[in-house]
Hints:
It is a single chain. Mean pLDDT is about 80; it is low at about 80-95. By secondary structure, this protein is of the alpha+beta class. Helix content is about 40%, strand content about 25%.
Amino acid sequence: MYYIYFWFNVKTNEIFYIGLGTGHRRFHTRQRNKLFMKYYKENECAVRLYKIGLNINEATQLEKDLISELNPCCNISRGGDRTNGEKISKSLTGKVHSKEHRKNVSEAIKKWHKEKVRNGKKVYVLDENRNIIKTFEAKYQLGEWLHRKYDYGINNRSAQRMADKYFKTKELFDERFYFVEKYC
Length: 184
């Protein structure tokens, strides 16, 4: 399930960022845009949940509506799918590439990714009691499974990225799974 969250200035109560997330995303300050990081470093900030228990379509639409209505100063996209390329200000984001260029880059990344992940490691999904419930040949398959079966992430790759940090920390992912990677 997804939720909508607000980052706000503690002193002025100004909402400066609206986001969509699952798990602990709302608390993370890494992988944020430059405007967010500048504002965050210069002000006393906090985060709060706005609405929880949403499916991806509800969350995407609500995020778009709230960004349009409140116009927070640190959101650089109109919300929803982060990869749709729809930007509020070209001056904030740099050069806009053609569809053909974006397609070529995307294909190259997919090719590199599939070659990189087939590295001789198996991925195991464990339940809360650390019993193996699923095995994959590569991490990208885990992302496909998480996205398809449990609706995590916007796409397979974003679901895999959500799970990636849990391989290193060995923490419980969304109070459901542990992930372990082992050489075959």
